[in-house]
Amino acid sequence: MDLAGVAAAVGALAAASAFGLWRKRSDGTVRDESATAERLSAADLGIDLDPRATLVQFSSKVCRYCGPTRRVLTELADQHTVAYLDIDAEEHLDLARRLTVLRTPTVLLLDGTGRITHRVSGPPRRAELAAAVSALASLHQ
């Protein structure tokens, strides 16, 4: 292999490593989306919105982390007495595209009006998501 080939291989390895580190740090982070104006309605979701908060999970059949995420969200929904909905992203492709769901699981936390307040790409960090759900649900007690 000549010097240019070695440099290209080293560059590709560095780029892949940087992406891996970024992904590991950002995966599951609960991001504040309250600045966005995106809202979901009962018609979008097929269920009535909870007046306190609604957890929405986008899943797929081949998703490795969707089952564990479903268990976490079910527990959080029960603990905070809020609604939870699991949506198959493949069956609701238009909605997934509209919301820029690029991977599963993707979790959205909605307020009582359907406004997206938080988003998680990948398996959520439980403590972060629990804090966000608690804060939102306590606003409407």
UniProtKB/TrEMBL annotation:
Database matches in PROSITE patterns: THIOREDOXIN_2
Domain (Thioredoxin): residue spans on this chain: 10-138
CDD domains: TRX_family
Protein name: Thioredoxin domain-containing protein
